[in-house]
Amino acid sequence: MWQAEYVRDRLSALYPQCSVEILGMTTRGDQILDRALSKVGGKGLFVKELEVAMAEGRADLAVHSLKDMPMELPPGFMLSAVMEREDPRDAFVSNDYASLADLPPGAVVGTSSLRRQALIAARFPSLVIKPLRGNLDTRLAKLDRGEYAAIILAAAGLKRLGLPQRIRALIEPEQSLPAPGQGAMAIEILSGRGDLEQMLAPLNHQDSARAVTAERTLSRHFGGSCQIPLAAYATIEGALMHLRAMVATPDGQRVAAAEISGPAEAPEALGRRIAELLQEQGAREILDACRDA
User: Fold this and answer.
1) How far is CA 197 from CA 191, 200, 210, in A?
2) Which of the residues 68, 87, 90, 102 is marked catalytic?
């Protein structure tokens, strides 16, 4: 809802003559909280109802956290704008400990992400990692009740909702490479709506759009979803893009990692090239083992 209100306010400022209304909806991804996303259908659970509303003419556009969007959109839909990226890092949240390194052996860490699970398990095999679902308030409440010693969340969500004080430490990409698209918001519309494309163009942030395009190209190559531990993060300086990526088994025992630099104006090519580099390290076999587990 914060994201929808933010886009509404941006559009209202750009087009004061237009009325922008929010159609609030609850998706299956919001409703199914007792199982990991990787077990109940993955990222598509957060977008299907919104796409139906657009197809039926009840809504003109949908606002998403890009990391929650499937890598392949259904026919008839497109991403019209990627807004300027917020902090893409993971956040360590705890009432009693300052960082992952401070947690004692056997401490319980909560996360909804196989990617985070793999990265934590690889660095801190003595920790116990348990699933954590629900909206931000629900997850923080579980931490505050003592169900977890710490939880790992996206820093962007905490900052957007005015809760930066809950962040005990930001985990740098060198220790926890972000998910493709993490920290970015995207606007989805029906294909062929040139009128909306034109209206939404001022909201598109070119560097953010290029970075997440590279990340999502890599993820698409491996069938990226919540069911595989895959990370990718691109940064841009001037005309140069630097892209890092990783795939791993959930226990962190098998990891393939690579990095590459190239022209920022060719994000798809960089995404495909880094996928090849990961493949040379056995990435496909690692991910097949994850799916079969």
Assistant:
1) 9, 5, 17
2) 68
Average pLDDT over residues 283-287: 85
Report residue 119 as tokens.
Answer: 């990265």
Higher pLDDT, 284 or 177: 177
Nearest to 93 by CA among 142, 30, 54: 142
Q: Cβ of 49: how many Cβ atoms within 10 Å?
A: 15
Nearest to 66 by CA among 209, 245, 260, 195: 209
CA 235 to chain centre: 16
Residue 92 pairs in a beta bridge with 152, 169
Q: What percent of the chain stands above pLDDT 90?
A: 77
Residue 30 clears pLDDT 70, i.e. is over it:
no
Is 68 a residue of the active site? Answer: yes
Token digits for 220? Answer: 């698409």
